[in-house]
Amino acid sequence: MNDFLKTKSYLEELNDLITGQVFFIAGNHDMLKNVTFAQLESPLSPCYLHNQAYDFPNSAWRLIANNGWYDSFSPQLDVEEVARWKKAYWVDAGVNQPLSDLERMNLVITQVQEQLTAAKTAGKRVIFLTHFVPHCDLLWARPAHFSKPRYERVYEMVNAFLGSQRLADLLETYPNVYYTFYGHVHGRHPALTHGQLTYFNQAVGVRRRHEWQAADFENQWLASLQEIKIN
User: Which of 100, 128, 167, 195 is least enclosed, having the fewest CB within 10 Å?
Assistant: First the structure.
């Protein structure tokens, strides 16, 4: 929607229509309008779960959520060059952010570690929700036609803004984390399991980019849902 207030309003209205509970976090496009960095770090709505946790009633399961961020899946690139490319070409240049990307990802890691440690101490099994890609194995492979240096550079630059391997490295050190849901990358990505932890991509996709397998939004959304059973 490219507007945090529209996203917030939509999900709050949805929450009022169902018997369960709706939670959401902010993606980079939600951050573009009508919200500041400081606001994103605060509890803006009962439905907004960034850096918070929810215990499922009558179970040992806890949902932990964090918007996430990125610090480059392309560490071979120069940090200043990445920053210039982002400012010139990437939509996130319009996001209100008083920190560098590395500093923002450092904050994410600190927040997530505190939440995971608290869950482990409480004896909770964890479902983790984030927007950005948490593991390098979840990225698209480089297209075969990206053989020229110029195209290879674009591929590397795009990967720089997709997520952080540090998040997966952290999640996989906690044996009580069983599921991670993420988005951000377009298209359909199969589930990935490392040890006891399974990563699920929940992105519905963008119709105008021919990413839908269904004929309309409702059926594409339904096809993208992932149901897990907890007890």
Answer: 195
